[in-house]
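Here's a chain:
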Amino acid sequence: MSESAAGISVSKPQNIWKRQVKVNLRSLFSTLGKAALNGAFLQWDDLAENGVEVLDALGLSRTPGELAGLLISQSLMKAMKGLLKSNADLLPQEVEKLALKELYTEITDSLQEQELILDRDFFEHPERLPIVAPIQAAFLRWLTTNNLITNSQEAQSLSNRLPAYFVLALQEQWKDKRDEYSLLLDEIDTPFNNAWKRERGWLHYRAWLQKQIDEPIFWETFSLKQIYVPLRGFYEEEEIKATTDKDDHREPSFKRIVIKLQEQLETWLEAAKSDDAIRLLTGGPGSGKSSFCKVFAAQQARLEKQVLYIPLHRLSFSTDLVTAVKTFVQHDGFLPENPLEPSDQDLRLLIIFDGLDELSMQGKIAQEVVQNFINEVRDQVKNFNNNKTRLQVLISGRDVVVQSNKNNFKKPQQIITILPYWVGNSDNFSDVDNLLKVDQRHQWWQQYGQAKGKNYAQLPPELSGKNLQEITAQPLLNYLIALTFERGEVQFSQETNLNNIYENLLKAVYERGYEKNSRGHRAIEGIKKEDFVLILMEIALSCWHGNGRTTTVREIEEHCENNGLKNLLKNFQDSFQSDSQGSITRLLTAFYFRESGDLRGSEKTFEFTHKSFGEYLTARRIVDRVKQIHKKLQDSKNDYDNGYYRRQALITWATLCGPTAIDEYLFRFIVNQMQLQSPDEVKQWQKTLGDLIEYLLAKGMPMEDLKNCPNFQEEMRQARNAEEALLAVFNACGRVTEEIFPIQWPSPEAFGNWLARLQGQRIDYKPMFVLNCLSFLDLQNCLLIFRDLYRANLERANLAGANLRVANLEEANLAGANLAGADIGYANLQRANLDGAILERTYLRRANLAGANLKWANLKWANLGWANLEEANLAGANLAGADIGYANLQRANLDGAILERTYLRRANLAGANLKWANLKWANLGWANLEEANLAGANLAGADIGYANLQRANLDGANLEEANLEEANLVAASLEGASLEGANLEGANLEGANLAGANLAGANLGWANLEWANLEWANFKDANVKGTILDTEVKTEFQ
């Protein structure tokens, strides 16, 4: 085929054995010398490795066809040599000593078998050249038939990498011999660059991904790769169970299937189903989500898969995912094109988005941002996979944010939860492979010991106590425990506070930097530990006000300047400019934060290596600010010239807590920090915060005095955040003091109005953070009609006299709460926890208490008429004098309950447990006690007339003087029961067991005792007039 403008016809370089060759000896020896210096092959066929001057030396022409043929042959040989070099340890001898003549012959023969046209597509995608596949197969045959690599899978993997290496070899050849291939340049204007950039980019990026897990963690000499333990997880399968529960939003029952995390995801990748291309990975803070994502990305990169790892706190996402990924890729600088806009339509891509909970956008709630992101991911995956599966996505995130969006992911196995190193109770799991029997803590400590040069065969005995089980089971906390354990400054035999561990680590960082031989010593000379921690807290606060993890030097400067720390910060800033290996900043970045590589405007950003470090430091800053506010207010009381009043305190508070809302993770650290303070001091803070709550409800949050609030909407948002934080920290104080500060609410509805504003509109059934902050709260006489308190934490709150009529308290925690005299009529208290609650004289008429826990609750004189107490736990509860008429108590547990003089007329107690209950003088007329357990119960003087006690267990019960007129006791068991003086007139005791029962003086007139067991029963002075008695037992009457 002739050459044309459309392309170049490629001919095989003429074989010098088949033609006369004019050899220029000087040129040839020169070329051979170059080859030897470069360690190239020393056989004749190796001459091709030395470039196009070989054509001159051998008397060959430099036509475009010859040049192109030589270029391809050279590049393929160079690629194969590179592959062999990269796996030299698998070969029986050095690469340079391998005989390659037949392999070169294979290449030239391949060129001879087909004529190739090189057009623009070749330079864009040289790996698509038709000759690549047959040469790849020939390379594999050469490897295996010559026993160069005995493992066929390894040989296959090696040959599979040939196309990528071929592209690199082409670029290198062209780059090194650009002038010599000028004739090709004249024919084709854009050779290789794009293909080279693309392949080089992926190669470099894959290498970078693998390097990430080989980077040292914190200040250690070892890497994540050395101590990483393969994680387990589970997915849920819904179990179909028959149920009578009509609650339409009660969560269904699920079976948890235990899996090996990596294997599960690899199976998903291999399946490559276009309609199942998204996986969500969830777990709590420190559960190993990010570590797994990094390790999994590195493993896929090692397998030469195209994988893109994106920490979501570094993704500038608004509404367009393609643009956001493009910006991210451009900033990283590895890949020359956006993988979501590939020029290669055959690209198969896995994207790992790490940290769904870290998406944020100023002026929008996190839930909205996350929802938009998820919708965009789903849309893009659908578009990419229209014809075939080209894109798969793995998203990781903390459990709360993933669970809030699980309705978008309903395919089987789509949401996977990471399991801790140790699962104490595996009853709720389906674990066919017995994965949970392995305590992975032992494996981690073995690897940690090897990395540290210490002999840890397993988890140290000092750390194996039950109080540390939850901590050592979590990857991050387990590591922090290890660091603290080696310092020997924390007593782990006590109840361990996590903040103690973080405090100890902060101390370790400071001391490490202050050592005289430390390279960080000069940078912190003269800086006190308190100042050191203070600046870190301010950095954390700056991050929290940003997106939770990252901040800039300018933002830190602003925070420090506003809080009088400008000079202190300067010492730290100087360290940013000093020798990176000799500064305190480098010491800190090794442990707490690092340069993220992102730009915010024109500034570099710095990020916390683990979000929980920032949360701990932010919590400390908030508690410190509470202390400062309290002190200033107290000083103002003693010195009127001081002029710091509650309004100024609220301005300070809004500045601190307005920009970002507190979440449950930060709150946990705040509570822990409060627990480390003096209880007396916390009690004073509780009063101060209570005073501030009273003031803001009367006067409002003074947002007009704040700086940097661009509009009213932003003021409202920050006011809500600040007020919620005030309530949360006030609650944290209450949890420590376990006392209630008496708040003077401006009006009965004031708290309800405030709570409604803080809550906003519920978007799902998940717990709302603000409702977790209501324990130890004084809510006496508050008006909370119809209030949404679903899953609220009202533990030990004072709700005496409160109006909660028709309120939703489903699954609320009211343990130890005071609800005396409250109106909770018609309210929903399903599965609520009222353990030990005070409900004396409380109005609960028609309330739904199904499945509620009322153990040891005080319900004296309460009104529970028509209430639903099905399957409720009332063990040990005091219901003396209560009205429970017509109530539903089916299968309720009233073991040992006090029901003296209780009104239970027509109540449904079928299958209820009333063992050892005190029902003395209770009214159970017409009640349904079918199959109820009343063994040992005290029913003396009780009215049980016309009640249904069919198949009930009354063994050993006290029924003296009880009224059982016309009661149905068919097949009931009254063995050893005392019925002395009881009224059983007209009662049906057919088939009942009265063995050993005491019926002395009982009235059995017209009762039916047919087929009853009356062995050893005492009927002394009993009235048996008209009694139906079985003839076989009449002789046993006394």
Summary: Residues 611-638 form the longest helix (28 residues). The radius of gyration is 39 Å. Residues 440-496 form one domain. Residues 278 and 393 are 5 Å apart (CA to CA).
